[in-house]
Design brief:
This protein has 5 helices and 2 strands. The protein has about 120 residues and is mainly α. The longest helix has about 45 residues, at about 80-125. The termini are far apart.
């Protein structure tokens, strides 16, 4: 798939996808004869992991490490120590993601309370 199609599927901007390529998070699997980036389903899966991590406050370095950890666990040839380190990092990310989700839920609750308050006042003449 070309980058425009990937942008539509992932709901990421073309600029963002190019940036992730430039910083080494998601390198396109191939290039067309014209030099266009070509992405596979696996590349799209990586982009979706990043998209999910971004609102939770993970850094680009942490995103890269998580993607690498997921690849290590998916590779049956990975050695035991690499698998252990990957599992531990994923567990840490899971804990952070849960904490971030809880924080976001609280912020959403506050925003909804304010919206309701404003709606009450907006209806008054």
């Amino acid at each position: 798939m070309q980058i425009g199609q990937v942008a539509e599927r992932t709901e990421l901007s073309i600029k963002t996808i190019r940036h992730y390529d430039e910083v080494g998070l998601v390198t396109p699997s191939a290039r067309s004869t014209g030099g266009f980036r070509l992405y596979t389903e696996s590349d799209i899966s990586r982009l979706l992991v990043i998209r999910r991590m971004k609102p939770l406050g993970f850094t680009l370095e942490e995103m890269k490490k998580l993607l690498d950890s997921l690849e290590i666990l998916a590779d049956d040839a990975s050695d035991a120590s690499s698998r252990t380190a990957a599992t531990e990092f994923i567990a840490d990310c899971h804990t952070r993601a849960e904490d971030s989700c809880q924080h976001l839920r609280m912020q959403l609750e506050y925003a909804e309370e304010l919206t309701a308050l404003l709606a009450d006042h907006a209806r008054r003449p």
